[in-house]
Amino acid sequence: MITWLRTRIDSFLGQGDAAVTVPPMDGALSPNTRLDRADLIAQIPTPNDLAQGDATYVSSGNTVYRLNPAGAPEPFRHFAEPVTSLAAHGDQLAVGQPQHILLIHGSTQTTVPVQCPTALAFMGDTLIATQGSSTNAPAQWKHDLMQRGSSGAVWQVTPGSPPKPLATGLAWPNGIAITPDGIVIVESWRHRLIRLGQPNAVLADLPGYPARLSPAQNGWWLCIFAPRGQLVEFVLRERRYCTRMMAEIDPDNWLAPALSPPKSFLEPMMGGALRTHGFVKPWAPSNSYGLLVRLDARFRPVRSYHSRADGTRHGITAAVDLGTHVLVASHGGNAILSLEGDLP
Amino acid sequence: MIRDDLVRWRYRLIPNTVVGEILSKPWIDNAVPVLMLAVLLTVFGALVPNLLTLGNLGNLSQTVGEYLLMGLGLTIVVMAGGIDLSVGSVFALANLVIIALAGWAGLPMAVAIPVALLSGALIGLLNGILVGYLRLRAFLTTLVTLIVVRALVDSLLLSYSQDIGAAPIFSAFWDYLAFGTVYGMSVSFMTAVALAVAVHIVLTRLRPGWHIIAVGGSRRAAHNAGINVRRTVCLSYVASGTLAALAGVFYAARLMSLGAETGVGLEITILTAVVLGGTSLGGGRGSVVKTVLGVAIVVVVTNSLLRFNLPSGSSPLALGIILLLAVAIDVRWVKNKRKVLDQTYVAPTYFELPPLPDARRGAATPYAVNDHLATAEPIGLGLLDGPEDVILDADDNLYTGSRDGNILRLMAPDYTRVEPYVHIGGQPLGLAFDRAGNLVTCVAGMGLYMVRPNREVVKLSDETNRTVFSIIDDSRMRLADDLDIAPDGRVFFSEATIRYALHDWMIDALEGRGNGRIICYDPRDGTSRTVLPRLQFPNGICMVPDGQSFLYAETWGCRVSRYYFDGPKKGRTEVVIADLPGYPDNINRASDGTFWLAMIGMRTPAFDLSQRMPGFRRRMAMKVARDQWVFPNLNTGGVIKFDLTGQVLQSLWDGEGGSHPQVTSMREHKGWLYLGGIFNNRIGRIRLPDADQSWTSQSAYWGAPK
Amino acid sequence: MKIITKLVAAAALCIAGVAGPAGAQDASPSSGFYNALKGKKIGFVPIAMGFNETQAWRTAMERQAAALGYEIIVRDPNWSIEAGIQAINSLIEEKPDLLIIENIDNRSYNRMVQKSIAAGILTVQTQQRSEIPSDAYMGPDWNEMGRNAVEGMVQACGKESGKNGKVAIIQGALTAPASLLQMAGIDEALKDHPEITVVSNQAADWDATKAYQIATTVLQQNPDICGIVGFWDVADAGIASAVKEANLQGKVAVITSGSGARESACDKIAAGDFSYYTSYNTAGQGRDLNAIIRTLLQTMPEPGSKPFDLVSPLIRINKDNMTPSSCWSLEELAQIGG
User: Fold this and answer.
1) Which of residues 36-95 of C touch B (CB under 8 A)?
2) Taking the C-alpha atoms of C61, C64, C67 and C69 in order, what is their torsion angle to the nearest 10 degrees?
3) Contact C38, C297 (CB under 8 A)
4) Is B138 helix (H, G, I), strand (E, B) or coil?
5) Chain B partners of A229 at a C-beta cutoff of 8 Å?
6) Cα gap B192→B61, rounded to integer Å
7) How many angstroms separate the CA atoms of B549 and B541, rounded?
8) Do chains C and A touch (3 or more CB pairs under 8 A)?
9) pLDDT 10s digits, A79-90
10) Residue-wise burial string across B236-264, b where 16 or more C-beta atoms lie within 10 A, e elsewhere
11) How far is the C-alpha of B559 from the C-alpha of B584, rounded, in Å?
12) Helix, strand, or coil here: A337?
């Protein structure tokens, strides 16, 4: 009864759980145009994940590319199904696909039955995998968000034994960091990073939906694949609208976060995104955004790289630190970017 | 869907525009004092016997009259941004002066009363000069006058009170002032009421009143607007002093008393009344009605408390607490009204569009999006701001409106030279030449205007008949949009919405209601009448060559209709295109007898769905910041060509929105199609190689130029 | 047996007597007396409640009202003429049998007194008289008060005192009869005492703070002054403290007048604050008011037809003649007053 009342009051006043406020991008997250100015390594359609073992790999669609010594991607392997995530360790490669994970070691290929693997990471010879949802496929991430899904899990895959769940009930786990103190998991729909086995988030209230984590020198790279916005937060609380939208409208045209700037006139427009005098304002509200955050070893943001509403390098899904430079995958910008010099 | 039907009927039966519209009225500020008065009357009326009897009200009417007179004066001063604490002393001074002159000196009333009023006016003038011209602080200055005048009265009383006080006054008029009644109410009360009406008219309808409000609102802005701030402030004190003196005269007539207590602390009582009514001490906001309410509240409270037989001093204490409460409520009200209004003014209703035609690239419909307009040749790039409509004259010069209220002329043949043709104000939108070569234009925020060839600007119409029962005043035109001229000279023009001004026009899309109308201006008798009410953002208007009908586009309704204003089908409306894939704007004639239709944006499934869920949009307007509301997609636009049967023949788009993301108008002229856009900084033109290379809209309407 | 019967009868009589009016059919107070008073409504509009005079009257009147079964309705305008008029108006609307008005000056309530009489209400004015006569007036002879004050001046500063005869006068409210008439009385009496010179004459509006300020200024300007005359003890406490602060107590005589309440009169005289005090003895005034009420309600004259005055006898008090019964207190009044 009290909960019901609380919910009604919150809903009326727009507070508590019903609040549609979004944390601002300030401090270390202050906007800039660093991603738009970053060097373009290669134009690849919808790059999804990056991995570094003995070589550097890029996944895109059904294909995994390998960077040649000059840094240019060359097709490495082609699969029958889309590649949803990627991890490499020495000469081992783990490839996530909608229904399972392929472990590739030289010419041997093992299939691990973990559905919807959204991120993979090797911990020694063990593979840690996040399962975004137990009901939705990776491509249906918008559905999972709109359903307010929290059926994700984390699996530990040891060669020769069945996968073991490390955690369940997660809201689209979408990134992994292996730290000396344990495993840190990205929970996209709850905009936070959690350490498995600990109650408190290591980083919370992000202004966007976080994706993969990858190690940096004395810290981490955190990809934010889409921004949070008041409108989407509001839509998420409008359950009837959500249901009808999911039933009646093509996901590309939803009021939902997106990986790329608007591609079609069928996509909804927020008032502030109106083109005036031929331009979209950089601060216009937008369903897509490019944001890469450099975290320190304690997962606190120290610096960020942006592509704003008027930019194109949106939907940052993966980054890999190569020491001299950082490769960044912009899903919406169809580009592999290189950021020079990871300043301490 | 049954649920949809329920929602549709719910919104059809109970219009939810009322709350927002009432909140947007200035008189709603009176709600707090009215409510307070009602509560007080109920509570005290129940507790205090006889409080509301006629006898008691008659007894109080003298007090109310005097308070109201002083309240009116103080209201004027406070609204001009000042404060007058000297009213109590002026009141006492006038009381002394009138008794001295009429009684002791034996002067006739015709002399004594004006002199008493003059004494108040002089004190007011002193205040006015000190505060208005010498720019002293109003509070301190009038506090000093309060003390000085009081000291003056006291010293006069010390010397002369026995002599003055002993002299009787014999005058019928004097007794009439004291005991006369008009409709059962005292003369002072009726005088105060009459003056209240007068002051109300002055403050709301006449120039001096507007000056007072402007000065109170912002001295600097008023000064910049050419108002003589110092004189206005000075005169407000003169008015206050005179009115306080008038109250003093009535008091003298009533009591014939030279009591030393006369008028002591009265300034606080009156100030309480004024502030309690809701007149802001910051100036610029208030009204006579508020003061009337405030005076009523103060009198009811003091009279009731007196009857409660409370210990001494509790009455001023209660007044003080009420004043504090009033100020607190006033502050909260002012602070939150805007917020509540913003949240409640947007009143969406149910609206279902027909299925969305496929306009995707390569679609098999005539709407398939392409990039024809992306290569349009830019004209005046960067020199224009908001060329909503474009038109060309017989010499091929180009005319367009701009956001700063000008009509600009771009000179043929290369259109690189831009000159302001005329300045009207508002934002000129739709343009049309009449038979005599006058340029008729719809000006957003102003109405229908005409520019003669000698650049003389003439107002044709800025009001139409007001709708009965409409809360907002819809007789004034907020957003005149596009027009066309019938062969007989009548001008049919659209007012896109009566609920929003130009800067908010997009919000009208969220409502999904017919907020707009088409108005006919008849030059023969200069009248304007609404011919088609309740249209969904009526926009483009174009005469059909039959001379009996015109086409009009309803932007948010995504349709084009034809209305017969003459002929056998007079009064009928036919839908020509019911299911556009986007939002239509202006309509103009094409050289081949068909019509061009500008498309300002495209329908999106997500917004179309929200149109069927009014509650969703209402909550969105309440909870989400305005720039993040979902709107029609106005970042892709183009031009469609259609004929009278509703068949779409061709469409030209800027698929990427790079140069013409919104097209609000287009005009064919000698083989070119000129494009306007309300958010654009250019006019574009593309070649129409297959069109009649000599055709102009001008000659099609009014025949070949002589 | 006879003796017993007599005793019983006597006891019965005693009980009847003690039991009061109800059983006193044939007793000496006529039944008309009690009937005339029982259930009556009396309105009282003082200048303000909360000071000696009005509190004393109220206490006295309420004591009698409780005993005789009628009601006193008090409306307190708290020094405001406007509120006073509203109070009287509202009472007239309520039609009491008798209305007691304490005038704030000689004119403000003129119309109200007329109106009250016209409304058929027995109207009594206290302390100060308005220009309109009503059924009764109760209060001191202010003129005599003024003459008394001169007597006080002469005692302190006259020929025999060997002082310079300089006095200051601090009046009440200028237009109040209490001030006006007292001043007139002073002026009149001073004609016989040319040795007394008035160096200052100002009004303190019955306000102790104002009186203090005026007295302080007067003492600064005339350090050799012999006496200060005030018109009301409550306000004149301000004069006394000004004198005390100037270290002139005993040198400057403070001559005042008032209700004769113990703490504001006798206590202050004992403390040396006041040297001469004229009391109109409010305790006695209370009894007078009660007498007026009893009389008028029994005789029920046509309102305004037969006005009469009850002038309060004055008591002159100084340190030498003061006795415990020179003054009164509210506690005593509540017990024995009226």
Assistant:
1) 48-50, 73-83, 85-87, 89-90, 93-94
2) -60
3) no
4) helix
5) 628
6) 10
7) 10
8) no
9) 999 999 999 999
10) bbbbbbbbbbbbbbbbbbbbbbbbbbbbb
11) 7
12) strand
The ipTM of this complex is 0.93
In tens, the pLDDT along B93-128 reads: 999 999 999 988 889 999 999 999 999 999 999 999
Residue B293: count other Cβ atoms within 10 Å of its Cβ: 22
The shares of helix, strand and coil residues in chain A, as percent rounded to the nearest 5, are 15, 45, 40
**In 3D, which of B460, B374, B389 has the Cα closest to residue A278?**
B374
For residues B176 and C110, what is the distance between their CA atoms, to the nearest angstrom?
Answer: 16
| Contact indicator for B242, B72 with CB cutoff of 8 Å | no
Tell me which residues of chain A, numbers 153 to 192, contact chain B at a CB-CB cutoff of 8 Å.
none
Report which DSSP code applies to B489. S
**B360–A234 CB contact, under 8 Å:** no
- Nearest residue in chain B measured CA to CA from A239: B616
Q: CB neighbours of B377 closer than 8 A, spacing ≥ 6?
A: B684, B685, B686
Closest-CA distance, B604 to chain A, in angstroms, reads 5
Structure tokens at B580: 């556009």
> Strand ranges (DSSP E) for B424-468?
427-433, 439-444, 447-451, 457-461
H or E element at residue C327: none
B251 to B60, B189, B258, B281, B590: CA distances (angstroms): 13, 12, 10, 27, 79
Q: Which residue has the tokens 């934002």?
A: B427
- Distance separating alpha carbons of residues C116 and C123, to the nearest angstrom: 7
Q: Looking at CA atoms only, how far is residue C165 from chain B in angstroms?
A: 23
Q: How far apart are CA B91 and CA B87, in angstroms?
A: 6
The pLDDT of B317-341, averaged and rounded, is 80
A partners (3+ CB pairs within 8 A) are B
Spacing of C-alpha B474 from chain mean position: 11
Mean pLDDT of chain C: 87
A 10 A CB-CB count for B209 gives 18
Question: Considering chain B, what is the average pLDDT of its residues?
Answer: 90
Record: contact B162-C202, CB cut-off 8 A: no
Interface test with B, best of A265, A274, A276, A289 (most B CBs within 10 A): A265
Q: Do B680 and A250 touch (CB under 8 A)?
A: no
Give the total residue count for chain B.
706
Q: Is the pLDDT of residue C14 over 50?
A: no
**CA of C231, closest CA in chain B: separation in Å?**
15
Return the SS3 of B33.
helix
Q: Read off the pLDDT of residues A33-73 as tens digits, 9 standing for 90 and up.
A: 999 999 999 999 999 999 999 999 999 999 999 999 888 99
Which residues between 286 and 305 in chain B have a beta carbon less than 8 angstroms from any beta carbon of chain C?
A: 302-303
β-pair type (B377-379, B683-687): antiparallel
Name every residue whose Cβ is closer than 8 Å to that of residue B65 and which is 6 or more positions away in sequence: B185, B186, B187, B188, B189, B190, B191, B192, B193, B247, B250
Query: Which pair of structure tokens corresponds to residue A295?
Result: 């975290």
What span, in angstroms and rounded, lies between the C-alpha atoms of A152 and A303?
A: 29
At A193, the amino acid letter reads L
Measured between alpha carbons, how far is B464 from B533 in angstroms, rounded to an integer?
12
Q: Is the peptide bond before C140 cis (omega within 30 degrees of 0)?
A: no
Establish if B316 touches chain C: CB-CB under 8 angstroms. yes
* Residue B14 C-alpha, separation from nearest chain C C-alpha, in angstroms: 48
On whether the CB atoms of residues A270 and B627 are closer than 8 A, the answer is yes
Instruction: State how far the Cα of C276 lies from the Cα of C284, in Å rounded to an integer.
Output: 20
Q: Could you give the residue ranges of the DSSP H alpha helices within B256-313?
A: 266-277, 288-307
Cα dihedral A200, A201, A203, A208 sign: negative
Q: What is d(CA B694, CA B395) in angstroms, rounded to the nearest whole number?
A: 12
Report the number of secondary-structure helices (H) and strands (E) in chain A: 5, 25
